[in-house]
């Protein structure tokens, strides 16, 4: 039986993203066994892999951290000492069991060799078997054996510092690293697990542990019933894995899976980019975090009664820190005069402009001016998921209108599968450039966002070039 690895662990061990592995699987360059990868096949697909080169993954983690408005989870990136000790103890027991089993197999091998040497019925068969056993024990290509051993050793270290969680019925899997809770890690990896407060008050994140062990890392006020405890329910926001886990948990797969929420938020930060554009950062109370899907919008209402709908420009991986790009402020002076600390009522999520998470096609993003806001959310979510095969962002704006240009260039610099093309000037000329780059639109998933006039022109040109309706996703600004 070959040594098998999950997709998440295999990607981490050879220093690539899951989307890179999935691309090889789709091309037939890498085999899987019930969704897992054999170490021998992994080494065959990445023969020159440097086991300690994690540069690509570190770049992705940095982008995720920035999307969650944090720089580092902690100083070391390691679990607590208590969790490390517990994991070391469990792995020590497993290694002891494996060593005992290996010893038993070696004894069986010696016994078989002895029995063959004593056999006299068929000298030809005996000689053939003895030679085969000898060859297998001596050859086994030492270089590949050493690499496999190194990979297994690295996997053991990874299991100490990061446990894997598999969610059912979706089958999604992810790694829990550092001091993250099961919920925090799920959100960091782009999964829409059910939750409300993120601090143990509401109980919405409770899920059933099917297999594995967890450790509570923070107190919670929500009380699980005795029946729930007996069934293995735990709060995902207050526990971290000690071992690899399989959990039964609710996830949002469509806009219908997330209820409309009303939250009183506070203005945390204001970035006035020019007279008619404001980047607004709102913070929800810790007891009420916003659940939404990337690309959705919210209605913002001020105390005076003024209201407007804007796309959420931030990643769903952090539902407390919300970003909005407020345009046409001259038509809405009440929003133009917002102050830090001011309260803003929020009603969300709204809209169906979301990422097609199950699609294996490359993602093509077309944004015009401040239509970049929902596109930014979609891209950050796609990076967190690590399943989008490739990204290409075309941002069309007037000269000086690419107001978060540095962020887009940072994505392109950090990710091998991300391209960024800023365009200026005439809309139709810019769209013609896109269509020259992508003559086969049937091969891509297109996300289009901007004012009504731009959306109308872009939709017409895309349809003329035979883009299938099911592959066109539109976020229209008011």
Keywords:
Ubiquitin-like (UB roll); 20 strands; 37% helix; five-stranded mixed β-sheet; 14 helices; alpha/beta; 478 residues; 4 domains; Elongation Factor Tu (Ef-tu), domain 3; six-stranded antiparallel β-sheet
Summarize the structure.
With 478 residues, this protein is of the alpha/beta class.
Provide a descriptive summary of the structure in words.
- By secondary structure, the chain is an alpha/beta fold.
- The chain has four domains: 4-60, no CATH class; 72-251, Beta-grasp domain (Ubiquitin-like (UB roll), Roll); 255-350, Translation factors (Elongation Factor Tu (Ef-tu), domain 3), CATH 2.40.30; 363-477, 3-Layer(aba) Sandwich (Rossmann fold), CATH 3.40.50.80.
- Helix content is 37%, strand content 24%.
- The chain has helices at 7-14, 18-26, 39-45, 55-67, 81-118, 123-138, 142-161, 182-188, 226-231, 333-336, 372-385, 405-414, 427-437, 452-464; strands at residues 4-5, 37-38, 162-168, 173-177, 206-211, 214-216, 233-235, 239-241, 245-248, 261-274, 277-283, 297-301, 307-311, 321-327, 343-350, 363-368, 391-397, 418-424, 445-451, 472-477.
- The chain has a six-stranded antiparallel β-sheet, with no helix packed on it. Strands 4-3-9-5-7 form a five-stranded mixed β-sheet, with helices on both faces.
- Helix 5 (81-118) packs antiparallel against helix 7 and helix 13 (427-437) runs parallel beside helix 14.
- The longest helix is centred in the first third of the chain and has 38 residues, at 81-118.
- It is globular and about 95 Å long.
- The relative contact order is 0.09.
- The model has no long low-confidence stretch (mean pLDDT 88).
């Amino acid at each position: 039986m070959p040594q098998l690895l999950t997709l998440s662990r295999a990607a981490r061990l050879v220093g690539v993203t899951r989307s890179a592995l999935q691309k090889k699987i789709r091309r037939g360059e890498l085999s899987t066994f019930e969704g897992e990868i054999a170490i021998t096949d992994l080494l065959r697909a990445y023969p020159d892999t440097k086991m300690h080169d994690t540069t690509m993954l570190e770049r992705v983690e940095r982008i995720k951290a920035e999307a969650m408005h944090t720089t580092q989870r902690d100083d070391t990136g390691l679990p607590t000492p208590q969790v490390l000790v517990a994991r070391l103890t469990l792995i020590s027991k497993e290694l002891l069991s494996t060593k005992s089993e290996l010893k038993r197999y070696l004894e069986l091998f010696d016994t078989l060799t002895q029995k063959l040497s004593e056999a006299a019925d068929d000298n030809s068969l005996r000689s053939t078997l003895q030679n085969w056993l000898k060859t297998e024990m001596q050859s086994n290509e030492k270089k590949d054996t050493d690499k496999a051993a190194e990979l297994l050793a690295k996997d053991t270290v990874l299991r100490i510092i990061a446990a894997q969680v598999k969610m059912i019925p979706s089958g999604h899997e992810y790694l829990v690293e550092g001091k993250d809770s099961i919920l925090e890690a799920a959100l960091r990896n782009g999964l829409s697990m059910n939750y409300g407060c993120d601090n143990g008050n509401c109980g919405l994140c409770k899920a059933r542990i099917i297999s594995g062990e967890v450790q509570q890392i923070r107190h919670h006020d929500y009380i699980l019933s005795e029946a729930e405890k007996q069934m293995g329910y735990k709060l995902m926001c207050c526990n971290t894995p000690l071992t690899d886990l399989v959990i039964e948990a609710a996830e949002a797969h469509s806009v219908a899976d997330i209820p409309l929420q009303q939250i009183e938020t506070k203005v945390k930060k204001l970035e006035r980019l020019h007279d008619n554009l404001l980047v607004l950062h709102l913070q929800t109370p810790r007891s009420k975090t916003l659940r939404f899907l990337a690309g959705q919008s919210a209605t913002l209402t001020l105390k005076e009664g003024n209201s407007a709908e804007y796309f959420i420009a931030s990643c769903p991986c952090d539902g407390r820190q919300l970003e909005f790009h407020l345009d046409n402020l001259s038509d809405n002076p009440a929003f133009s005069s917002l102050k830090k600390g001011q309260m803003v009522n929020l009603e969300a999520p709204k809209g169906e402009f979301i990422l097609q998470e199950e699609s294996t096609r490359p993602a093509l993003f077309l944004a015009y001016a401040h239509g970049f806001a929902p596109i930014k959310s979609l891209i950050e979510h796609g990076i967190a998921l690590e399943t989008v095969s490739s990204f290409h962002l075309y941002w069309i704006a007037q000269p000086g209108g690419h107001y978060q240009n540095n962020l887009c260039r940072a994505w392109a610099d950090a990710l091998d599968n991300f391209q960024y093309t800023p365009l200026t000037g005439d809309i139709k000329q810019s769209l013609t450039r896109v269509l020259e780059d992508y003559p086969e639109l049937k091969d891509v998933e297109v996300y289009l966002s901007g004012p009504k006039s731009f959306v109308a022109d872009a939709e017409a040109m895309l349809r003329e070039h035979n883009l299938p309706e099911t592959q066109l996703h539109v976020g229209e600004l008011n």
